[in-house]
């Protein structure tokens, strides 16, 4: 099988149930998930296999789930005679909340806004956080125009919070403090 097909040379791509323009909102949404998945992979290669073992495991699971979410968003319509079976579900959202709480428990109380940075791992995870937010915005826009798996939107909303919590925990594990925004007062009490 060849990597190139030439079927997209005129700006169209195939999705489940039909072909659409490559700049369609749906393609932009799942394409941003693909971009996020790449940044997660980049963050993982910066991690120490021992110090960040649980983080590596969680991020690997998230990479699979991002691929699942992209698949859920790739449905233009159900294949003829079939119903759509989505992979992303509310249990995945609940599990993210548990992970957020676990990583947040490792961190000192937050008093100020946190700037991206600290350790290289934390900085990479903050990139994941911001790309996750952009992916969420793309999915929200898509949901206003077409039917989607609503659990994907909820998952992405939690996922950016997860990346914030794990980025702070990475700083703790790496012995580096969070970079606080100093031009404002304490906003969290």
From TrEMBL:
Alphabetical UniProt keywords: ATP-binding, Cobalamin biosynthesis, Nucleotide-binding, Transferase
A Pfam family per the record: Cob_adeno_trans
InterPro entries assigned to the protein according to its UniProt record, in alphabetical order: CblAdoTrfase-like, CblAdoTrfase-like_sf, PduO-typ
Gene3D superfamilies per record: Cobalamin adenosyltransferase-like (1.20.1200.10)
Domain Cobalamin adenosyltransferase-like: 3-169
Record keyword ATP-binding present: yes
The EC number(s) this enzyme carries: 2.5.1.17
MF-aspect GO terms: ATP binding; corrinoid adenosyltransferase activity
Subunit structure: Homotrimer.
Family from the record: Belongs to the Cob(I)alamin adenosyltransferase family.
Protein name: Corrinoid adenosyltransferase
Taxon lineage: Bacteria, Bacillati, Bacillota, Bacilli, Bacillales
């Amino acid at each position: 099988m060849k990597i190139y097909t030439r079927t997209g040379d005129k700006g169209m791509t195939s999705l489940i149930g039909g072909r659409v323009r490559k700049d369609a909102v749906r393609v932009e949404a799942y394409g941003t998930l693909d971009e996020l998945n790449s940044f997660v992979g980049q963050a993982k290669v910066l991690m120490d296999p021992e110090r960040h073992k649980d983080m590596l495991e969680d991020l690997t699971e998230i990479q699979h789930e991002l691929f699942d979410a992209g698949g859920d968003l790739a449905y233009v319509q159900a294949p003829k005679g079939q119903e759509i079976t989505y992979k992303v579900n509310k249990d995945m959202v609940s599990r993210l909340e548990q992970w957020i709480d676990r990583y947040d428990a490792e961190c000192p109380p937050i008093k100020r806004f946190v700037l991206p940075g600290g350790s290289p791992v934390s900085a990479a995870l903050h990139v994941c956080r911001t790309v996750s937010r952009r992916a969420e915005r793309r999915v929200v826009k898509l949901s206003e125009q077409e039917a989607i798996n609503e659990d994907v939107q909820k998952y992405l909303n939690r996922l950016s919070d997860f990346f914030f919590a794990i980025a702070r925990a990475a700083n703790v594990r790496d012995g580096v403090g969070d970079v606080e925004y100093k031009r404002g007062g304490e906003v969290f009490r």
